[in-house]
Amino acid sequence: MELKMIEAQIEAILFTMGEAVEVDRIAAALDHDTDTIRKIIRNMMDQYEGEDRGIHIIELDGAFQMCTKPSMYETIIKITHVPKKHVLTDVLLETLSIIAYKQPITKLQIEQIRGVKSDHAVNKLVEYNLVCEMGRLDAPGRPILFGTTEEFLRSFGLQSLDSLPVLNPEKLEDFKLEAEEELQLKLDI
Question: What span, in angstroms and rounded, lies between the C-alpha atoms of 135 and 143?
Answer without folding.
Answer: 9
